[in-house]
Prior knowledge:
A: 389 residues; alpha/beta; Aspartate Aminotransferase, domain 1; Aspartate Aminotransferase, domain 2; 12 strands; 13% strand; B: 166 residues; extended; Tscrpt_reg_AsnC-like (chain B); Dimeric_a/b-barrel (chain B)
Amino acid sequence: MESTKRTYVSKLVHDLKPSGIRRFFDLAAGMEGVISLGVGEPDFVTPWHIREAAITSLEQGYTSYTPNAGLLELREEIAYYMKSQFNVAYSPADEIIVTVGASSAIDIALRTILDPGDEVIVVEPCFVSYVPMVELAGGVAVQVQALKEHDFKILPDQIEAVITEKTKAIMLCSPNNPTGTMLSRSELQGLADLANKYDLLVIADEIYAELAYDEEYTSMAAIDGMLERTILVSGFSKGFAMTGWRLGFVCAPVEISNAMLKVHQYGLMCASTMSQYAAIEALKHGRADVEEMVKSYRRRRNYIVQSFNEIGLECHKPGGAFYAFPSIQSTGLTSQEFAEKLLLQEGVAVVPGDVFGESGEGHIRCSYASSLEQLQEAVKRIKRFIDSL
Amino acid sequence: MRLNEKELEIVEILEKDARIATEDIAKMVGLSLEETTESIKKLEENKVIVRYISIVDWTKVEEHPGVRAMIDVKVTPKRGVGFDEIAERIYRFDEVNSVYLMSGTYDLSIIVEGKSMNEVANFVSQKLSTLDSVISTTTHFILKKYKHDGIIFEPDNKDKRIVVSP
C-alpha cells in the first residue's frame, strides 16, 4: 500500500507563529552573569502569610477539587474586593469564575463568544498570546496599533476604522504589557462609546490594575453601561506577586459567565485548590503588601525612566505595570538587532518590542521588577553598549 | 515635624539603605539633586534621621568575642518618678544596649552585651541585682540571630525566576 507520512499536527496549530520571546529565552539561558530586564513577573516572592495559608490548607487536607467556578468563599472575597477597590459589582454566585491564571480566563472568554470567522479587534502592542488565542478559538484577530506619538494609547477613531459586521469584541490591556500605558477614565469612555454604538463586547485584561502609579485606576466595567458589555479578566499574578500559583479570575454578566463556565468545566474542571486558599488570604489580608510593592515599583519606574532618557533612549513615563518601553530608534538598529547585540555584548536581556506587535518595533521592553542594584548595573551596561555603536 | 510625601519617601528609602547615592534617591522620588540634598539635610537637622549605622553580623568575624543576653527585670517603682529613675540607673551602664519598659509579668526588658557569658553574669550579679529597686532578674542568652530590626541575616536572595518571560 502506498503511504505518505501523515501530518498529526492540525493546520491551525502548525500555522501559529512561535512566540518571539522563546528565542531570547534560549539565547539568554545559556549565558553567565546576565542581568535580565526581560522578566514579565514581580521580583517579590509571594508574601509569607499568603504562602503560609496554602501550607495550612495542605496540612488540613484540603486537597480535593473545588466547585468549577472556584471556592464560593474565594468568589465572595473577589466580589468584595472588586467592589471596594474598583467599584464594579459582580455576583459571587454566578458572575465570577476562578481560572488558571488570567491566560485561561482570556482563553475561555474567547472560546465562549466566538463563532468561526468572528473578528476581535486586538489593540497592540500587546501580550504575545492574544492573537494566537483568538485564532485558536476560531476567530480572526484584527490588529490595531497604539502609537508612540500617542503615548501608546489607542484612539477610538483607529478602532472605528476597522469595525465590520463580523466584529464581536475589542480586546485590550491597561495598564499595558509591554508599554506600561494606562488609559484614563475619559479614554476608556471613548472606547466604551464605540462598544455601545456597534454593540460590541470588550475583553478587558486588567491583570495589572493594582499597579497604577500616578492616577487612580479605572476599570472598563466601571464606565457607565459597560458592566453589561465587559468581560473583565484579572488575577493574582502581578498585584499580589503570585505568578507561579496560576490563579486568575474572570467576571462577566451572568449570561456570558454561565456560558464560560461550560468551557471552563470541560477544559479545566477547576483551578488549583491550594492556590485558591492562598488567594483568599491574599484578598483578606494582602492589600497592605500590594501597597508596599506599588511604592517600590513606583520608585524604580521613576529611576529607570529618567535614567533611560539621560542616556539617550527616549522613554515615556508609563502609568502602570512594571515595564518601561524606551525607543531605540536613535541607534538605527531594529529592536531584534538591538536586543540580541545588547545581550551578547553586555549580558543584558531585554525583550525586543516587535514580539508584541508591529507597533512595538523600534522599542525594547524593560521590566524594572529587579533590584535597584541590578537596574543601576543594567543602565550602565546599556549606556556602554549605545556608546559603542 | 510633619513630613511631606517626598520627605517620607526619602526617609523610607534611607531606612532600608543608608548608603544609597543621593542622585539615585532624587531620581526615585522625582526631585532634583539639590532639593533632595536639602531635604536630607533638614531631616538630619531635625533628628528625624538620627544616625547612619551598619548592621554587622559579628558571627562572621572569627574569634570575635561577644555575647548578648536579654534580661527580664522586676523592679519597685518609686513615688514621683515611677520607673524612670531605675531605668536611667540601668541604661547608664555601658554594658547595657537597650532598655524597655514592658507590660506583663516583669517591668524592664534590658539587652546586655559582654565579651563572655562570665562577663554578663558578673554584670547581672554584681551591678544589676544589687540595685535597691531591683527585685529579681531572669537572664536569657541569645544563641543565634536570625532576624534583627527587620533584617534577615542569611537571606535567600536567589532570583528564582526564568530569565525571559512574556
